[in-house]
Specification:
517 residues; alpha+beta; Rossmann fold; Hect, E3 ligase catalytic domain fold; four-stranded parallel β-sheet; 17 helices; globular
Length: 517
């Protein structure tokens, strides 16, 4: 009698892992997800040959989730070396507001013959009616979780506004941010870019240095009583050598901001704009604003503020659409071209923001008078958004360094970060550009005049909305004034590439000598 032949071992299945840690749900760390995924793979004779990781990324959409986007592209291009994808659960795949979008990305994988496994779920993703129903419900629940969280966060922020606490942003010229504890006791001023480190602490606005407070009152006096316009006031301030809170010369726009912001009469205003659930930025009408009156100590008398406000409203509201467009034609005749700066600097003309509000955008207004600037205004808009994002990124870096015990001070004149008074760092945002052939390129502008010890080059994604990755470029190894980088640059340059700034923060963290012994 023949002995039975031994069972043939099952072939090992090659798999990739996808992990995501969102900013609103930090307890689901990528390490914890990988532990579950590895156990799942071990039980099913799978070998994880590739890992795609999106750390600190919201799951509301695919924008900014570079690893998920790269994985989907690899699947579509057929450039994969794995037969399945392992994910912690349905919510880690994404909290898409449209459940069909989540299903669509999974369908792309399944169409290419690559199955998606949800390792921590109680159902097998085998295409059965039961799994399809359960999966659809969980996708809807994942999206609903984000909607509920957004609502709760908004309600919490509104409550803090009503209590008189400031929610994000800089203080503004003439004001300072004061840190207070739970009982309302002052703990000290926060420097520009500095963030609170204790969750129960709050921030209020207080009057700034006397010379700045007097300058703000002088601006109102000149506008209301001396009947000077914003451009004239800006020129006078610059002639006196007065700089803004960012250490820059005054413009009509910066003066206009002071004349229209209610914080100078002590009002705390919130929800002027919305960007809920990563949707389109929306400018909300005044009736939707959340306002707490007399929340802070005022530095301008309310009657003076409302007189200035009335002058500005009368100046813009008294013009019809045709009259505004006619004034725009006058600017074109005078200069032969039009730009937002020329509009803002023109006397007796509504600001460029007023044109955007009335006509939707400056480009729309230009088209109505038959003007073609022959400029890609998407480029200008992207640069404007990046300039707005840069201070927020620098502030975030300073906050992280401070929480690690390091000293981080921003030099307003040079823009360099002084870390522990030992290392000088430049933070540069690099706009994504596409070549004629469709390839991605980024230009890193290395400041030869300031010569920072380290340049943090922040590469933006293809939409120039979110951060893709970071290059930590030491001055000793950099000899170019402008460095042009591509998707892949070889080991000589990509050795400096990092997905996060964790390595940089580790370099700056203070460590007691005893801990090293």
């Amino acid at each position: 009698m023949k002995e039975s032949e031994p069972a043939q071992p099952q072939p090992v299945v090659r798999a990739s892992a996808y992990v995501r840690m969102s900013t609103e749900h930090q307890q689901y760390s990528t390490n914890n997800q990988m532990d579950v995924i590895r156990e799942y793979a071990l039980q099913r004779n799978m070998e994880i040959v590739r890992t795609y990781s999106d750390e600190g990324k919201s799951g509301l959409n695919i924008q900014g989730r570079d690893s998920l986007g790269r994985m989907i592209r690899d699947v579509e291009n057929g450039s994969t070396d794995f037969a399945c994808i392992l994910v912690y659960d349905v919510s880690r795949w994404g909290r898409f507001q449209d459940a069909d979008e989540s299903a669509y990305y999974e369908y792309i994988c399944r169409r290419a013959g690559i199955a998606v496994h949800y390792c921590a779920e109680q159902f097998e993703n085998d295409g059965s009616p039961v799994s399809t129903i359960v999966k659809s419900v969980k996708r809807a629940m994942a999206g609903e979780y984000s909607r509920e969280l957004s609502s709760k966060v908004f309600q919490g922020a509104c409550r803090l506004i009503q209590l008189g606490y400031k929610q994000g942003g800089t203080a503004g010229y003439g004001l300072r941010r004061m840190l207070v504890d739970q009982s309302g006791q002052h703990k000290g001023m926060l420097d520009l870019g500095q963030q609170k480190s204790i969750q129960t602490d709050r921030v209020i606005l207080v009057p700034g240095p006397d010379e700045e407070v007097e300058a703000v009152r002088w601006i109102y006096e000149q506008f209301v009583h001396a009947q000077k316009n914003e451009a004239e006031i800006a020129r006078a301030l610059n002639e006196l050598g007065t700089l803004t809170d960012f250490g820059r010369p005054w413009t009509r726009g910066t003066v206009h901001e002071i004349l229209t912001n209610e914080k100078y009469i002590g009002n705390n205003v919130y929800h002027r704009t919305s960007f809920k659930l990563k949707r389109k930025h929306v400018e909300n009408p005044p009736e939707m604003w959340v306002r707490a009156e007399r929340a802070f100590a005022p530095i301008v008398e309310p009657n003076v503020f409302f007189m200035a406000h009335g002058i500005i409203l009368a100046r813009s509201h008294k013009l019809t659409d045709d009259e505004m467009l006619e004034k725009l034609r006058d600017v074109l005749k005078e200069h032969g071209r039009i730009s937002g700066i020329l509009i803002d600097e023109a006397e007796n003309l509504p600001s460029s923001a007023a044109f955007r509000h009335r006509f939707g955008s400056l480009v729309s207004a230009y088209r109505l008078i038959g003007y073609d600037p022959q400029i890609d205004y998407r480029f200008i808009e992207i640069n404007r958004k990046l300039r707005q994002q840069h201070p927020e990124l620098v502030a975030s870096v300073i906050g992280q360094l401070t929480s690690l015990g390091a000293s981080a001070v921003l030099d307003e004149k040079t823009g360099l970060l002084s870390i522990n008074e030992e290392l000088y760092v430049s933070v540069v945002l690099c706009r994504h550009q596409s070549t004629a052939a469709g390839s991605s390129r980024w230009v890193v502008r290395l400041d030869e005049s300031l010569k920072p010890d380290l340049t943090i080059a922040v590469r933006m994604d293809a939409a120039n909305e979110r951060i893709r990755d970071f290059y930590l470029l030491p001055a000793l190894d950099m000899t170019w004034e402008n460095l042009r980088i591509a998707e892949a640059n070889g080991v000589y340059l990509d050795a400096y590439r990092f997905d996060t700034l964790d390595y940089f923060f580790a370099m700056a963290e203070r460590v007691f000598v005893e801990d090293l012994l």
